[in-house]
């Protein structure tokens, strides 16, 4: 007996124990054996995360996982082309997308509209994160073509004990980067690197470029416009973001060590993070960081926990009700003209449904649940802040980046580091540096686009 069939036999026998209703008389649709080709990263991880639970509820649907690992055999420079060729060759019933190719596949008629299926089955979507549904519909031209069981997002984490100790007003929902960095400056900066307090920082060293990019991303700024393919970093808005970052680093309120953690036991990893060790007032945190904070309490001997607070933000002062730091990593849709539409819809319904959310609500390993009401807190910490702001995925820094040749970044990143380094060393003004970055960056982009077009034309004639 194969491993796949052995797993299935065990799961079917467990069905009545784990899911109420599995032992009831099955529907006619459930009695009809069917198969399903699902596109996913890895077969084993798929069954751990989704497949085992789905099979318990739907034992007559045989799942074949089409692993995307095969897409990356050898050197892949054009990921969009590789993805399209993979889908065309494998013809999966369920396609796993990201936000970028979701829009493209929906607009090109490559996906099955879900609205009709939702209405047909009276499928409840009311407690799915409304802002996420709204965004997915907007990306689908007003119609829904895919659902995501989880999403990722960030919020401002803060150490309540440090704020009380130093008499600083605690953070609030909707803080801007300027407010956050001004608050960070109110904490002491004396002491050595391994014992002092930091007002703000992240897990690793935060250079000026890193902080400026974070500020710019929140405010919807893009260094390269994907629609016009123009470098647009020499603007007043980018200058403001960089100046804010430079001032914050110069104030020594931001964590910016010379060396980062280079490997070792988990205890040492946690000890290398000032926020977890209670030496940082604020940081940007995610659901994964909540799990790290929980695990550190048992991994570190004589650990001293602190009261953790979480608020929504930072936000763009021009759009205080949205966030550009939210996205989905695994968005599932049904391929247009799939011969197994009903089975594919059963799968998507299940992994976005109440039963699945109830089981997965105990873990933060795969992100935040889109189905609301089942995971409202983790380890005693409310998750409300992650759901307060409306996601603006189109405004995210990465949105549309597939239009920009990867080779361009090989030239652009060193240019950015060099020019901003000259500003830090007082050898060049910020205005001059941004002007140089835009001019030389545009030349590099034009060259990369031309070379990509030439290669495409050459490949088409072979």
From TrEMBL:
Main location: other
The keyword Magnesium is annotated on this UniProt entry: no
Signal peptide interval: 1-20
Gene3D superfamilies given in the database record: Periplasmic binding protein-like II
Keyword entries, A-Z: Signal, Transport
Keyword Transport: yes
Coiled coil: none
Subcellular location: Cell envelope
Domain of life: Bacteria
UniProt xrefs under InterPro entries: Bact_solute-bd_prot1, SBP
Family statement drawn from the similarity comment of this UniProt entry: Belongs to the bacterial solute-binding protein 1 family.
Protein name: ABC transporter substrate-binding protein
Organism: Paenibacillus puldeungensis
């Amino acid at each position: 007996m194969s491993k796949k069939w052995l797993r299935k036999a065990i799961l079917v026998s467990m069905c009545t124990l784990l899911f109420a209703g599995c032992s009831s008389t099955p529907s006619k649709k459930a009695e009809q054996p069917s198969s399903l080709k699902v596109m996913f990263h890895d077969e084993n991880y798929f069954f751990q995360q989704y497949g085992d639970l789905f099979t318990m509820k739907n034992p007559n649907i045989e799942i074949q996982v089409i692993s995307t690992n095969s897409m990356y055999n050898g050197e892949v420079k054009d990921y969009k082309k590789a993805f399209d060729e993979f889908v065309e060759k494998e013809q999966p019933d369920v396609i796993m997308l990201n936000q970028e190719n979701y829009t493209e596949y929906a607009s090109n008629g490559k996906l099955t509209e879900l609205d009709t299926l939702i209405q047909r089955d009276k499928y409840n979507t009311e407690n799915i994160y409304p802002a996420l549904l709204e965004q997915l519909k907007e990306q689908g031209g007003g119609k829904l073509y895919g659902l995501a069981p989880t999403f990722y997002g960030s919020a401002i984490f803060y150490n309540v004990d440090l704020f009380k100790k130093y008499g600083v007003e605690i953070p609030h929902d909707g803080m801007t980067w300027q407010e956050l960095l001004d608050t960070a400056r109110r904490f002491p900066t004396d002491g050595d690197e391994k014992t002092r307090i930091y007002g703000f920082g992240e897990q690793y060293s935060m250079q000026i470029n890193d902080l400026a990019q974070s500020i710019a991303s929140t405010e919807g700024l893009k260094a390269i416009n994907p629609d016009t393919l123009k470098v647009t970093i020499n603007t007043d808005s980018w200058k403001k973001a960089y100046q804010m970052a430079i001032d914050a680093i110069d104030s020594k309120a931001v964590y910016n060590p010379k060396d980062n953690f280079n490997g070792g036991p988990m205890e040492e990893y946690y000890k290398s993070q000032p926020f977890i060790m209670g030496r940082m007032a604020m940081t940007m945190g995610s659901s994964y960081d909540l799990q790290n904070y929980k695990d550190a309490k048992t991994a570190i001997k004589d650990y001293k926990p602190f009261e953790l607070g979480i608020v929504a933000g930072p936000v763009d002062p021009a759009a205080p009700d949205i966030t550009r730091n939210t996205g989905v990593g695994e968005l599932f849709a049904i391929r247009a003209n799939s011969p197994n539409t009903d089975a594919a819809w059963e799968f998507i319904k299940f992994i976005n449904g109440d039963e699945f959310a109830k089981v997965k609500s105990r873990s933060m390993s795969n992100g935040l649940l889109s189905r609301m009401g089942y995971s409202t807190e983790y380890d005693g910490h409310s998750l409300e802040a992650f759901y307060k702001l409306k996601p603006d995925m189109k405004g995210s820094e990465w949105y549309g980046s597939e239009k920009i040749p990867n080779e361009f970044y090989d030239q652009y990143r060193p240019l950015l580091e060099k020019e901003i380094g000259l500003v830090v060393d007082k050898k060049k003004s910020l205005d001059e540096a941004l002007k140089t970055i835009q001019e030389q960056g545009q030349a590099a982009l034009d060259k990369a686009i031309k070379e990509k077009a030439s290669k495409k034309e050459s490949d088409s004639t072979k």
